[in-house]
Amino acid sequence: MLWRNKQNPEARVFRRGSFVLFLLCLLPGLGCEPFVDTLDFERRDAPIFRARELQQPAPTSELKVMAWNLKFGAGRVDFFFDFWGDRVQMSLDEVEANMEGIYQLIREYDPDVVLASEVDVNSRRSAFVDMVQGLLDNTGLNYGSYHQTWNVRYAPYNGIGGLDMGNAILSKYPIVKAEDIRQQDRTDLNPVYELLYLHRVVGRAEIEVGARRVAAFVVHTEAYDQDGTKSRQLDQVHRLMKEETLPFVCGGDFNELPPGSVRVVDFPDERASSKGTDFEQPPYSPEDMRPFFDDFNPAITLEMYGETEETQQRYYTHSILGPHMTGEMDGLPGFWNRTLDYLFIRPDQEWKAGSTDVLQSPGRLDITSDPMLLSDHAPVVGTWVLP
Amino acid sequence: MIRLVGVLLLAGSSALAQPLPARDTADVGARNSWSVGVFNPLRWSIRDGVELEAQPLVALVSPHVSVRVAHLSGRWRVAGEYGLGVPTFGMRLLGDLLFPSWDPETSGDRIGWALVPSVGAVVSTGERGVFTARAQLAIGIPLGRNDANPLDAYAPVDLAFAPALTGLRARIGAQYDHPLTERLRLRGGADVWATGANPAPARSPLFLSAWAGLDVGVGASSRFTAGLRWFNSDQRRTRLVQDAEGFSTRQRVRSNDVFPTLDFIWAG
């Protein structure tokens, strides 16, 4: 999402960036730490963390699950790549305040498992806050696995600097095994920027819930590719889910609309100035999500989603534009305007009746927090009845 | 590379104009003497005991100049260094890359103007082998609003912008410059640097550096230089430590980086 390709009209930036990147790659060539981690693996163990103070979870036959893209604790701070602002960095106070809002919503909903994406652990843009440990220490979640997707020591792009971002699986119950499963990289980037661009990794964790062992997947597929990368990544996620032998829940930010979506273009949070840049929204391919709905049990079914914009908007999960600004197209304050986030379980397993929803605003499932202020994605939740 | 060094050594030994002097010492050149490298600064003695110093390439975008004045000569030589710089042009030129390209119509954030005066003292002793100690202080004086933060990049970059972005850069260091032959000098040294405060979370302001290099005389008074410089600094990096139960914790670590130093210094 950060790197401009040769076709970009701002090629001047690319050329200057390439030169500096070259120097920065060359100079510390003898250094003891790598300049960038290209995450060169297919599958590897992922680190598991735990809260400083563990809380004993109650025995259970069901799990409350939440999938939530946390936008690296930025809340509604408008970063430059969203084209509604020009921020590149937050203060520690800002990040802590935003994270406190996230902790508060998690404590309110009180999930057993959280599938979180865009989690920073040591990034300059988010004041180097370790959000995995923060989530563990400030919610009732005891264990967390971190699935790194971006590790650049210094990205010389618009002052962004160091990045360490990934997905996380957080659980009240012990995580006994965690894996990173590498996804394909984009092929439409300049090689220099391909080196520095974020990667995509599916996180998988095995969780012991009493005598049961279940699996959890966290997903965050590509957003800005023009080369079919996201489609291939979704195929891989679908395949991983089909091959899984344990009971599982899979969730996250799939960056794709559900099949049957009424609105597929001209979203009210798009900004004209993003056109022609690397951050222009590529066309969606909602049919890429069809196999997930055919083969698995979604928290929000296509029947719930409905066939009109009125029914579908109840389950929208994403808006770049926050409520503090108005859209260029409709002049209205920002609100959720498309669905990109999902939860799935096996087709022979069940969600507890009435438990699934998108926490769009205060009052949904009795929450009092306003998710619209906490991230550019809304949490998708449901209670999974364990087999 | 070996062939190149051989040619340079041969050229150096055949020149035999005069022994290659130590450099970066308290010695201030005689009137109209000068030296300049690609990366090393231009030094030009405007009169005996007074030298002007600036990096020409950097000065194009970040005006600066330093005056070196010989205060004491003899067995112990002492020089004072008094400088002034305005780094803002260069910082703004690096917008899009190292600094944010803020939009005046969006946030109005900006890279602010700053003056960077500096003062230093250099003491040297020895004729063939020269020992030098130095202390330097540069401070940033903001001229109005500045929204740029320290870069948290690599140590040399952070140190370069430290006065403007943290308000302070202090350095104490020592070096020894030893002649191996008339045209070959072995040099080494160590420095401790400190910068001003960084935005939270806390970051160590101390930078440690050690370096070694070889100067090879070329022609009458020019030289080819090559070496390595090591920095140890808090670049906000972490490492994972796994306990006996298999759980990880994230611990802050200081970074170690080694940079090659290459230059050709013309002198006259």
Which runs of chain A of at least 5 residues are low in confidence (pLDDT < 50)?
1-18
Oligomeric state of shown chains: heterodimer
Order of helices and strands of chain A: HEEEHEHEEEHEEHEHEHHEEEE
Roughly what fraction of the amino acids of chain A lie in strands? Answer: 15-25%
Head-to-tail CA distance between termini of chain B: 27 Å
Secondary-structure class of chain B: mainly beta
Count of runs of 4 or more consecutive helical residues of chain B: 4
The number of E-state strands of chain B comes to 13
Radius of gyration of chain A: 20 Å
Describe the structure.
The complex is a heterodimer of chains A (387) and B (268). By secondary structure, chain A is α+β, with helices and mostly antiparallel strands. Chain A is 20% helix and 25% strand. Chain A has helices at 11-26, 92-109, 131-138, 191-196, 229-243, 290-295, 302-305, 309-312; strands at 43-45, 48-50, 62-69, 113-120, 143-155, 161-171, 175-182, 201-209, 212-220, 248-253, 297-298, 341-345, 350-351, 357-358, 380-385. In chain A, helix 2 (92-109) packs across helix 3 (131-138). Chain A is globular and about 50 Å long. Chain B is globular and about 60 Å long. Chain B has helices spanning 2-15, 56-61, 88-93, 155-166; strands at residues 34-37, 42-47, 50-54, 64-72, 76-85, 113-125, 130-139, 141-143, 168-181, 184-195, 206-218, 222-242, 248-267. Chain B has a twelve-stranded antiparallel beta barrel. Chain B contains four helices and 13 strands. In chain B, 14% of the residues lie in helices and 52% in strands. With 268 residues, chain B is mainly beta. Mean pLDDT of chain B is 92; it is low at 7-16. The interface between A and B is large, with 42 and 39 residues.
